[in-house]
Design goal:
Distance between the termini: 14 Å
Keywords: Cytoplasm, Heme biosynthesis, Iron, Lyase, Metal-binding, Porphyrin biosynthesis
Strand content: 15-25%
Organism: Rhizobium mongolense
Strand order of the largest sheet: 2-1-3-4
EC number: 4.98.1.1
Bound molecules: the ligand C=CC1=C(C)c2cc3[nH]c(cc4nc(cc5[nH]c(cc1n2)c(C)c5CCC(=O)O)C(CCC(=O)O)=C4C)c(C)c3C=C, fe (ii) ion
Number of strands: 8
Shape: globular
Radius of gyration: 21 Å
InterPro entries: Ferrochelatase, Ferrochelatase_AS, Ferrochelatase_C, Ferrochelatase_N
Catalytic activity: Fe-coproporphyrin III + 2 H(+) = coproporphyrin III + Fe(2+); heme b + 2 H(+) = protoporphyrin IX + Fe(2+)
CATH class of the largest domain: Alpha Beta
Number of domains: 2
CATH topology of the largest domain: Rossmann fold
């Protein structure tokens, strides 16, 4: 819609309004695997006080003195092993863009809705895509942090970043933030389908299935972050839907960073211990990740598989994330349509 010229001066430029934007936001990813791109990305990520809650007085000497001098090379090499060479980008970027395109197609019955995507760290930034939606005439935006379980380090920092940008706008869009959906039935069903389908394609059956979630420092949880309990509930509902006995299903936490204690049990230690205890066949899924990324493709499908075999395990399967699959899109669409209610 464009403002009718009758109540604007003749020389006023046309103003677009009356549309609704949906902005899908994932964590972020470096633009390349080289030192400079990695350092820029990690710097933005690790100076976020929702991620590292230590005082900058204590953290910055370590970050700028050690971490940003060593980690970019190390993590750059890990990214190289999982880089989407066809598109010259990480899979997290490929899947997030696909999710946005597919969501746009699935919402074709709502002609006033525009769908776009952004990253909390790196590009495209949340600010640039809010501006683009606004320029297209979206005066209402549904902001969807792509995390099924709420954590301050992920969901809240996406919301913070969007509202920080709104601080600078004269004509702000109305912003609706999308809550977590850790116990949504369609989500649990999609996870269960994905496990069943993937295991049906193997010529062996896992003795144990691990649901591995990204960890957070234990202290964040103790200060009231609901993340741990939401992961437990997702895992519990998934186990029930799969009809698995307690001994066949475990919830673990991966991707520890720094010296603090994180949520336990740790995925890497659990995988090692299972193999050492004589378990020969396991499957691992990552229900907390909407899309496959470094943490699932490298840390689990490569490193955890390697460690399982090194310690005596024989068969290891990584069950992919829901990504841009039909089941995965059904979950995202359900959440978006619910949050659009009253606006379309
Ligand atoms: C204290 C540090 C970190 C917290 C807390 C944290 C929480 C957290 N992260 C995700 C999802 C992802 N993290 C990813 C990479 C990643 N995470 C951290 C640190 C913390 N994460 C770092 C330093 C990195 C970069 C890689 C590395 O240096 O090890 C990614 C992958 C991005 C990609 O491009 O592939 C995701 C996704 C969640 C869900 C979460 C808390 C619940
Ligand atoms: Fe992380
Ligand atoms: Fe990691």
């Amino acid at each position: 819609m464009t403002i009718a010229p009758s109540y604007l001066p003749a020389e006023h430029p046309p103003v677009k309004f009356g549309k609704v934007g949906v902005l899908l936001v994932n964590l972020g990813t470096p633009d390349g695997t080289d030192y400079t791109s990695m350092r820029r990305y990690l710097r933005e990520f690790l100076t976020d006080r929702r991620v590292i809650e230590w005082s900058p007085l204590k953290w910055y000497p370590i970050l700028f003195g050690i971490v940003l001098n060593t980690r970019p090379q190390k993590v750059g090499k890990a990214y190289e092993t999982i880089w989407n060479k066809d598109k010259n980008e990480s899979y997290l970027r490929t899947y997030t863009r696909n999710q946005s395109d597919l969501m746009g197609a699935r919402l074709k019955d709502l002609p006033n809705v525009r769908v776009d995507w952004a990253m909390r760290y790196g590009t495209p930034s949340i600010a640039s895509r809010i501006n683009a939606l606004k320029d297209e005439g979206c005066d209402r935006i549904v902001l969807f942090p792509l995390y099924p379980q709420y954590a301050a380090a992920t969901t809240a920092t996406v919301n913070d970043k969007a509202f920080q940008h709104l601080l600078k706008m004269r004509w702000q869009p109305a912003l609706r933030t999308v809550p977590d959906y850790h116990d949504d039935e369609t989500y649990i069903e999609a996870l269960a389908n994905s496990v069943t389908k993937h295991l049906a394609g193997l010529d062996w059956e896992p003795e144990v299935i691990l649901a591995s979630f990204h960890g957070i420092p234990l202290s964040y949880s103790e200060q009231g972050d609901p993340y741990f309990f939401q992961c437990q509930k997702t895992g519990h509902l998934l186990r029930e839907m799969l009809g698995l006995a307690k001994e066949k299903f475990m919830i673990t936490f991966q991707s520890r960073f720094g010296p603090e204690e994180w949520l336990q049990p740790y995925t890497d230690k659990t995988v090692e211990k299972l193999a050492q205890d004589g378990v020969k066949r396991i499957a691992v899924l990552n229900p907390g990740f909407v899309s496959d990324c470094l943490e699932t493709l490298e840390e689990i499908a490569e490193q955890a598989a390697h460690s399982f075999h090194e310690n005596g395990g024989e068969k290891f399967a990584h069950i992919p994330c829901l990504n841009d699959s039909e089941d995965g899109m059904r979950v995202l669409e359900k959440v978006v349509r619910r949050e659009l209610l009253g606006w379309v």
